[in-house]
Amino acid sequence: MALTRDDVEKVSLLARLQLTDDELNSMTEHLSQIIQYVHQLDEINTDDVAPLAHTLDITNVLADDVVADCLSREAALQNAPQRDEECFRVPAVL
Amino acid sequence: MSSPETQPMGGTPYAVVVGLEVHVQLKTNTKLFCRCPTTFGQPPNTQTCPVCLGLPGSLPVMNRHAFELSMKTALALNCTIPYFTKWDRKNYFYPDLPKGYQTSQFDLPMSEHGHLNIFSENDEFADKQIRILRAHLEEDAGKSMHDEAAGVADSRIDLNRTGTPLLEIVSEPDMRSAAEAKAYLQELRLILLYLGVSDCNMQEGSLRCDANVNLHIDTPAGTIATPIVEIKNMNSFRAVQRGIEFEVGRQYTLWQKDKQVLGDMPKQTRGWDEGAQVTRAQREKEESSDYRYFPCPDLVPVVVTDEEIQAMQQQIGTLPASLRKQLLDDHQLTAHTSAVIVNQGLGFADYFLALATAIDDSRLAGNWMQGEVLRILNEQEQTIQQFKLSAAELGELLKFIQSGDLDNSKAKDVFAVMIESGQSAADVMAELGIEKVDSSQLEELCQRLVDNNPKIVADVQSGNPKAVGALIGQARKENSNVDPGQVRQICLALIEKL
Ligand SMILES: [Zn+2]
């Protein structure tokens, strides 16, 4: 099951990535290689293996509902490409 | 062939099919995966940390209390709690979602297969059970605000709300009208309030409702289903009802023109426009597979034991349906009075129960709760917890009605002073000089009035019983403690005997 150029185009749109034609071509090739690599797993018989939800064999990591310190607003906004006094600013979302 | 479940109703050539997705913010101190506070209405971007900002290298840790509140709610909604549950990433791009995915639950939700019962207070529909498909625990997104100042078409992003715990409760498409959908939402809200798991404030967004609506239309060639539309932005119960009603009309008109059926187009999202009272098309909903769900590697699964489920079941307490039954069956209240009491919430209902026990008269207690007490609470914008009188103090007043020392209208006067001054009923009555008029005194007074007012008596005798009102007025002038009802009765009896 190879990845097509259309698949990559669709995924890049979902991730809001604007790829050039060249990038789309090379990305299709690279991503296909990765998927083919993972497909090696198909060779293993997993009939008797239960589905795995997590690679770690632990459950129930829970924290108490107690407030801890937040970042200051200044710290929260400091890496934003665009901002004002209070908020992150982004191109219009309607 | 139409199934009996979706037969056309009320003379329309179609049946309405509605399912609701309700998102409710859980009442925790901190967010779902970090310990930032969840306080509403704080200045923008003052309640964030690396986890809820989605900064690289940060790791989420599940809020135990949020999980417990979810479990409590799910059990109250008659859901089963699977022993094993996990979280998944729902990937989509939006500026109010800094991680680029929402941590939600996909194939192994923390609860499923519940139901709740709805009924109509004015017999708009028969009692019915609405099935609940699932309820799962996920995180809220931030808020984006459009800024049109000075021609700059930017959006401003506030991430205070990002990561607030949300329980998404998904019904089966079991509702057959806008009225049923509204009743479902109201009953669900009441249950959540009784459980104390959420503020359920639709204006503040702690309770949000989306509706999936389509029609099953009878045609000569069989029953067809119209494409499903999801309605968003309904910020009140009224909006939910109006939005669905509008969408039903719109879909039927559209189908008559374009004959499009379910499957001809992807699921559409429309927003409710409160000002114009119409739904408007929004962005096409991405196919479910486009969210590219996969298990979140940063969170480990949660396992629940039978003992934990049973322990949580014990904590559920009184729910609206059982309370309603108690008020109707054990206290013999009318459906209306019991609905008024139940809808006011658990605190109000508890007050009623205490009052009814104190005076051993549920009907008198119910009438006062529904009348005077509720009126004062509304006037003073108070909750029953802030109400000035305890059930015992109010009970003292009502006992004077039971003993005949006070008539209902006098009791209201005393009540008003009690609210004002905080004095006991007995003290207020002493201060106002209210004391019971004994019956021989009253007889004597009435006899005197009848003797001295031949014109009024003649008027009554000639078939105008209302004329006796003038005698009642005179009686009250002489002694403000007389019971007007009793004066009327005695005077009419005396005139009859003449
Ligand atoms: Zn945080």
How many helices of chain A in DSSP terms?
3
Q: How does CATH name the architecture of the domain at 5-43 in chain A?
A: Orthogonal Bundle
Structural class of chain B: alpha+beta
Computed Rg of chain B: 30 Å
Q: Given the C-alpha coordinates, what overall shape of chain A results?
A: flat
Structural class of chain A: mainly alpha
Q: What is the oligomer described by this structure? A: heterodimer
Shape of chain B: elongated
Biggest β-sheet strands, sense, barrel of chain B: 9 strands, mixed
N-end to C-end Cα span of chain B: 77 Å
Proportion of β residues of chain B? 15-25%
Tell me, rounded to a whole number, the average pLDDT of chain A: 91
Terminal CA distance of chain A reads 38 Å
**Main β-sheet description of chain A:** none
**DSSP E strands of chain A, number:** 2
Tag the structure with descriptive keywords.
heterodimer; A: 94 residues; mainly alpha; Histone, subunit A; 35% helix; 6% strand; flat; B: 498 residues; alpha+beta; Arc Repressor Mutant, subunit A; 3 domains; three-stranded antiparallel sheet; 39% helix; elongated; binds zinc ion
